What we know:
Layout: E1 4-9, H1 14-25, E2 30-37, H2 41-51, E3 55-58, H3 64-70, E4 77-80, H4 82-88, E5 96-99, H5 107-115, E6 119-122, H6 126-141, E7 146-148, H7 151-160, E8 168-175, H8 185-189, H9 193-196, H10 206-214, H11 216-229, E9 236-240, E10 246-252, E11 257-261, H12 267-275, E12 298-299, H13 306-317, H14 321-337, H15 345-356, H16 365-383
Parallel strand pairs: 1-2, 1-5, 2-3, 3-4, 5-6, 6-7, 8-9
Antiparallel strand pairs: 8-10, 9-12, 10-11
Helix pairs in contact: 4-5, 5-6, 6-11, 6-14, 7-11, 10-14, 11-13, 13-14, 13-15, 14-15, 14-16, 15-16
Bound molecules: magnesium ion (MG).
Amino acid sequence: MQKKQLVILGSTGSIGTQTLDIVRRYPDLYSVYALTANTSVDLLASQAREFNPAAVCIADESQYEPLCNALRDTDIKVWAGSQSIEHVVTAREADVIVAAMVGFAGLRPTIAAIQAGKTIALANKETLVVAGAIIEEMSLRHHAPIIPVDSEHSAVFQCLAGEDADAVEKILLTASGGPFRTFSKEQLRGVTAAEALRHPNWQMGAKITIDSATMMNKGFEVIEAKWLFGVRYDQIEVLVHPQSVVHSAVQFRDGSIKAQLGAPDMRLPILYALSYPDRLQTTLPRVDWLATASLTFEQADTERFPCLRLAYDAIARGGNMPCVLNAANEAANLAFREGRCAFTAIPEVIEQTMKKAAYLPAPSLDDLFASDSEARRIAASMLG
Ligand code: MG
């Protein structure tokens, strides 16, 4: 295998740091061309010292000076501002772009990387949620393959290896159900952000952990799966599987089902996305069959977790509705983390925003940026 040069967008986040752990394990196979972060200047600087990239970018321009100072005695180029991130992903030396930024902010740099014909290891799910139709078309046109990093989509991707797309009957996306899986509607009204941030199986960033608790994360994954695997949304079924060992499955037209299983450790799907189509030897955790004596499955409850239903509604309506869904969710998710709205208000704000926002059946990229702003304004007016 030829050594691959990576650009890691969002290197200081959960996926970013775990991607660097993979790079650390395979120094002969991977090196870092560039690292980018939003605001975490100290961690970015220490990562740069360890991995010695050609360049680092910090989105927050006020952190430019501190970052320059921290790397003064190195020859690492320092950039600031979101424009510089779009620039660095198109560098000739970059082979794989790991898109691990959080939220809508991941869209522009991912598009720039696709247009430059790079291989995208996609962890930022908002990219496909907001602009799935446009991204899929661009990826084909620019021969920029999108390899999923998300554990569910990595599982489906692995199940589909060697299979004919026409033979797929159904995609079964598993969901842990999050920390409130067994809570009543009444109990859900009083939960706090601190409780929601205690996810039973996965270590993730704050935004996605809250999305997991509301099950919006699973809704986004349904939308992502539709675009990644070219299926209809009604061919995607969510199955709650609290042990998070079966990462997802594909049911074929002959009734046969292939599932992918593994320990709940994000480094495994990250490793597969980087090594695909090869499988590398690793000492990462194995499934302990005897400790996981039972694997259980239950139906997702959209009564208690309406965000999942709203995501299906958004993709059924199509056009800019998934973009509106995402924008309203980002606003409500943040408001909940800041104690400005109740857990059960999150789906209410999203539903109202979807009702009030202008519907565009075939939006351009510019339309989506405008729709994102409009939806954030509408959501903000309800959040105070
Ligand atoms: Mg996932």
